[in-house]
Amino acid sequence: MKDYFKHDKGYLLINEEAFFLTSSGNWSEILSLSEKSISSRKVNNRRADRMYYFVGLLMVACFYAFYSKKILAGFGGMALLFFVWNYLKNETTARYKIPLQKIIQLEITESRKLQIRFYNEMGQEDTEYIHGVEPRGIAFLKKNFIKFIVS
User: Fold this and answer.
1) How many Å separate Cα 123 from the centre of its chain?
2) Is 115 in contact with 126 (CB distance < 8 Å)?
3) CA–CA separation, 99 vs 26, rounded Å?
4) Nearest 10 degrees: Cα torsion 73, 74, 77, 79
5) Which pTM does this prediction carry?
6) What are the residues whose beta carbons fall under 8 Å from the beta carbon of 24, sequence distance 6 or more?
7) How would you classify residue 116: left for phi > 0, otherwise alpha for psi between -120 and 50, otherwise beta?
8) pLDDT tens figures, 9-18
9) 73, containing H or E segment
């Protein structure tokens, strides 16, 4: 059993050992993932902060171009901002693993939203919400993880 599924902010990779949340869907990325903890949250937050700072700087540059009467440069900057945002939005996704033995419950809603309740690295109950899981992934979860699913 080994598969991966796209969701709104990245990928959910599943094998016999764990669920892995990544931004790329690349199986080699799971080798460096740890369980969800305070340190993994800090790493994810720093990554997201850097992306937001970069997009913010681009926005300031666009506004400066508009106000300095360089309309074409302003529109070019706005287009660049749009493409950079679409490229980098996956950088804000959570990256960690959830071992199967620590999963408490899976809840799947009609709107393709997955709620995973599990014990994190510190042994505390935690929840992860994953929006926009592709239909193939929902079917895979319902077929292979029926013991965790609640209606």
Assistant:
1) 22
2) no
3) 18
4) -110
5) 0.71
6) 10, 11, 90
7) beta
8) 889 999 999 9
9) helix 71-88
